[in-house]
């Protein structure tokens, strides 16, 4: 019987001792995820390691291959209720939190450490104090939000980029899926004999980015793996490069309740809008 196992390329991460990262992530988590990374309350140095302890028990693992700060956001002490109150947001301690992440790495609790939803300005602040550079920056990235500036910056700094919402993600605005509804991608998919999702994922892969795809369907999982034995033509890449850009995920609308005001934290430091 022929094997149905697809050969998935791997990406070497910068952190010493880290396992290579698959070139496509077959994510099955649900949103919001707060147990496996300290995005919710990393306002003090001890909290990154503290966030890992219950995560380790839940995962039944002694270490994780990759541990991420989920967002450059900190909250006041106390129980977290999602969506969180705006007035509970406090300034993010880039240096202190990253020192704690480095300690997790040093202790072997995390083979690689990284960030998520960090812009170039966020990374500038972090790198100014970092001894261990982040191995990965996981951000919203797809053909309709291509993150050109951030990709170039991360390539220069040796930070691998991983893409969440590679197929457009959750429809927060109620106005359709800009990726799967794209006429440009549909035209390319028809010409190539592929699905729109495969074209989007192939484009991300050709940018040197790892797409993190969420699916529970065996057929879709198989479809998502079928992106490594073909390539996009130069004209395809040109057309995709001209797609109007549209960001979906924003801190103000995704993480926080509509009520209240930001009192002690600057929304500009939390926001992740950057082309």
TrEMBL record:
Pfam families: Aldo_ket_red
Signal sequence interval, chain numbering: none
Coiled coil region boundaries: none
GO molecular function: oxidoreductase activity
Protein name according to UniProt: NADP-dependent oxidoreductase domain-containing protein
Binding of substrate, residues: 70
PROSITE patterns: ALDOKETO_REDUCTASE_2, ALDOKETO_REDUCTASE_3
Domain NADP-dependent oxidoreductase: 35-242
InterPro entries: AKR (IPR020471), Aldo/ket_reductase_CS (IPR018170), NAD(P)_OxRdtase_dom_sf (IPR036812), NADP_OxRdtase_dom (IPR023210)
SUPFAM superfamilies documented for this protein: NAD(P)-linked oxidoreductase (SSF51430)
High-level lineage: Eukaryota, Viridiplantae, Streptophyta, Embryophyta, Tracheophyta
Domain of life from the UniProt record: Eukaryota
Species the sequence originates in: Triticum turgidum subsp. durum (Durum wheat)
């Amino acid at each position: 019987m022929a094997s149905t196992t697809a050969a998935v390329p791997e990406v070497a991460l910068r952190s010493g001792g880290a396992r290579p990262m698959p070139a496509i992530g077959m994510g099955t988590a649900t949103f919001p995820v707060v147990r496996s990374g300290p995005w919710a309350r990393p306002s003090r140095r001890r909290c990154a390691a503290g966030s890992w302890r219950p995560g380790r028990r839940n995962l039944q693992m002694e270490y994780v291959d990759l541990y991420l700060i989920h967002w450059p956001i900190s909250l006041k002490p106390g129980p977290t209720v999602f969506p969180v109150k705006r007035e509970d947001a406090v300034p993010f301690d880039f240096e202190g939190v990253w020192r704690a992440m480095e300690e997790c790495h040093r202790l072997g609790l995390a083979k690689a450490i990284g960030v998520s939803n960090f812009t170039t300005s966020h990374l500038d602040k972090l790198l100014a104090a970092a001894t261990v550079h982040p191995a990965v920056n996981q951000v919203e990235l797809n053909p309709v939000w291509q993150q050109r500036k951030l990709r170039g910056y991360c390539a220069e700094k040796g930070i691998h980029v991983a893409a969440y919402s590679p197929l457009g993600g959750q429809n927060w605005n109620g106005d359709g899926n800009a990726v799967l509804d794209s006429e440009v991608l549909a035209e390319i998919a028809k010409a190539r004999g592929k699905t729109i999702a495969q074209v989007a994922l192939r484009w991300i892969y050709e940018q040197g980015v790892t797409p993190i795809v969420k699916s529970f369907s065996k057929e879709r999982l198989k479809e998502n793996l079928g992106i490594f034995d073909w390539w996009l033509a130069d004209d395809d890449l040109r057309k995709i490069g001209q797609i109007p850009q549209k960001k979906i995920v924003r801190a103000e609308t995704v993480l926080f309740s509509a009520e209240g005001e930001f009192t002690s934290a600057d929304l500009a430091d939390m926001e992740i809008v950057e082309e």
